[in-house]
Amino acid sequence: xxxxxxxxHGIGGAKDLPISPxxxxxxxTAALVVSFTVLAVAWRNPRYDASTSGRPAPSWLADIVDSxxxxxxxxxxxxxxxxxxxxxxxxxxxxxxxxxxxxxxxWWWVGLVPLSLLLGPVWKAISPVRTINLAFAKVAGSDPExxxxxxxxxxxxxxxxxxxxxFVWLELVYPYSTELGPVRLWCAxxxxxxxxxxxxxxxxxxxxxxxxxxxxTLASRMSAWGRRDGVLLIRSPLANLDATPVxxxxxxxxxxxxxxxxxxxxxxxxxxxxxxxxSTTSAYLLxxxxxxxxxxxxxxxxxxxxxxxxxxxxxxxxxxxxxxAHSVVPIVIGYVVAHYLSYLVEVxxxxxxQLSDPFSRGDNFLGTANLxxxxxxxxxxxxxxxxxxxxxxxxxxxxxxxxHDRAIRILPKRHQLTGQxxxxxxxIAFTVGGLYLLFAA
Length: 441
Hints:
Layout: H1 3-6, H2 21-42, E1 55-56, H3 59-65, H4 68-91, H5 99-108, H6 112-119, H7 122-126, H8 128-140, H9 158-172, H10 180-201, H11 204-209, H12 211-220, E2 225-228, E3 231-234, H13 237-242, H14 250-266, H15 270-278, H16 283-307, H17 320-324, H18 329-355, H19 381-410, H20 421-440
Antiparallel strand pairs: 1-3, 2-3
Helix pairs in contact: 2-19, 2-20, 5-18, 6-12, 8-10, 9-12, 9-14, 14-16, 14-18, 16-20, 18-19, 19-20
């Protein structure tokens, strides 16, 4: 990213975090092992069941959330924001102070996670491509839920995984990622693909293929809001997480989310920078290979950890990675917090200031141009470091709990504990590697 964004990007000088990396890694590994041991002794029966967990939300709240005016309000907000930022992208200047970059890389990518944790699947509610597809369907007199073709189930979430990889490639590898032209082109291609897909397959295309809707919906699985048969529920985040539909490509999605965040840390590390500078191969090619290796590597390690177990007669090894992929979601969220917290808070405020002046003319359309961003988090490095480490450890512990509950439901009794050991080893590897990168960047 360009200098104006890079100053606050990522974890902001993790080498100086005032915590011993050896102590943090040892503590995190111990937490995982102890968690698994306690679960093995005290958690012998599955506790989460999507068909029974949760209780209906208060009727007044359900009436609001399910009302037409509420849905229209969110769709209007999403469309107005889309048009406003679109005007800045088309008519604004190709400068780093153009708010398009902050909205694209900070609000859209990172901000979706806390919003989805608090409110549920936010992108589904505000998605401008869903709104445009709905408007087209109304004009044509057709049903936006149904397209002219049936979506192939075997594709699952693989198109979303490809879309997510395309985004992180643009952000982390493409050398002109903060020029307006490439960002405009990426967004135009995204809108075009989404509208064509919606016309062909209906709204199921967005549920399975929209990278941001899939990302937001996965993050919302760790919220307190869920649904069953259309009824709004309040339930524990882990029960909500267990209700994640098992579909092809789910491992691909979490591997891209986790692997790209890890590579974002790694590419700023001293070892990688020195390797790239000392190599005769172009930095662009090496970064491409590095990003791909991290995403594929995460997927392979996780797949191996889930497949190296004893099975009953009704399970196939190839089905296990997607069965357990939901357990990676809290890990992804933990790393997003650890890696992007100060980035979101600080650059997110700068973006709000810039949004008042979308054409870089000194305007103050939103009344936020004179706000002063707060760098309070960066001024408290000990607190920030503790939050980052706790986020990583908490994400992994919750991942172990989610995986354990799923294991004792689907694995035969003789393998319910021993069968989890390879997956526990994979999660320990993720923890050690993630915390190492957190401190090495």
